[in-house]
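It is worth pausing here to work through a concrete case rather than discussing structure prediction in the abstract. The textbook approach is simple: state the sequence, then state the predicted structure, then interpret. We follow exactly that order.
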Amino acid sequence: MFKSEYLNKVYADVEKRNGNEPEFLQAVRDVLESLEPVVAADDKFEKNGVIERMVEPERMITFRVSWVDDNGQVQVNRGFRVQFNSAIGPYKGGLRFHPSVNASIMKFLGFEQTYKNSLTGLPMGGGKGGSDFDPRGRSNGEIMRFCQSFMTELAKHIGADTDVPAGDIGVGAREVGYLYGQYKRLRNEFTGVLTGKGRSYGGSLIRPEATGFGAVYYVEEMLKTFGEEVKGKTFAISGFGNVAWGTATKVAELGGKVVTISGPDGYVYDADGVVTKEKLDFMLEMRASGRDKVQDYADKFGVPFFAGKRPWEQKVDVVMPCATQNEVGEADAKNIVANGVKYYAEVANMPSTDEAIKVLKAAGVVIAPSKAVNAGGVAVSGLEMSQNSMRYSWTAEEVDAKLHQIMADIYKNSWDAAKKYGMEGDLIAGANIAGSEKVADAMIAQGIAY
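Step two, the predicted structure:
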């Protein structure tokens, strides 16, 4: 699989240990493929066993979460926290509440988070956590009781200088509030142990928009390389939650036009674009309703709805998947290529299958990888940590300016890293290399304990 005998051995060991974890294996394979020229150029990686350590989490915690529903019935879910790598800072990564959560998905997300956090330039290690609890259809009281039970166990393993979780799919401002309240009750501490908090108790401005805003700032830099700009471009995106909303908001602000959003029921095509305040606000209303139906947008604004389909069949300039892992398959990629799309930016975590990436690469589509594109969310979480430590709060303009600069730096560092190793223009390789080299250097400096 790899030209390097060393990488082949490492990956064979990973497969042997994690053979039933396809998402994790996919994420590891993606990074190791990019590191071929790096390992060939410097034997410090093999001499110090760096790659072997990078693919094994420092710690993985699995725990039972028992809680009582509104009918007085005891329910039991499984909780996770993967503390993957702390070489450059405390573990940092979100909590996901979704029925699909399992060990493979947690490990893939924690592994990706390590290099994403490294790319931001902020001192944050990589971690991830969550539960197979499904918040959809649950009452406010049930969600509060679940969060309190979940945090009762998680609190033993986290702290402002140890591990700082945040939100992810299924964990929004409400859930973060309940989790934080229980942590404070248990530890009698008011610290920055969670990010994505409400503004009234230490949250940062721009945090809800950060992932989407950051993704568009990255795309803006990418387009500049090719003498183009966001203004006048059409965008196909998936999802309709915070990430999709932030993406659509910033695209509209820069003069572009998002023409698709999607949900589990299908997608809508809005030729006029999701550009007005009414339309953008309605996206948030749809998410808050818990109905999980994007058809509501079509019904309200009189635009076409395509039941059971994905938005990648539409002809646009830029495609930005914003929903979940592996949502773009080989057939979707062929549609994207057939429509003449030039730019593809992954906003969700690993939204493309390996087969899809191969199709897009072969067609010459410029691919921007998720660990770089969606780093804006964790970047602003890192800025929230800084504000909490200082007992201070920056203005929205200050946070936005810092976010913009971080995303511009991520793009430049990724481009430069790829060029350094003879892969100019390969943003996937560039992000993997730029993120990995910093982590590797820190691990070597700290000895084999890490």
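Step three, interpretation. The mean pLDDT is 96. The two ends are 27 Å apart (CA to CA).
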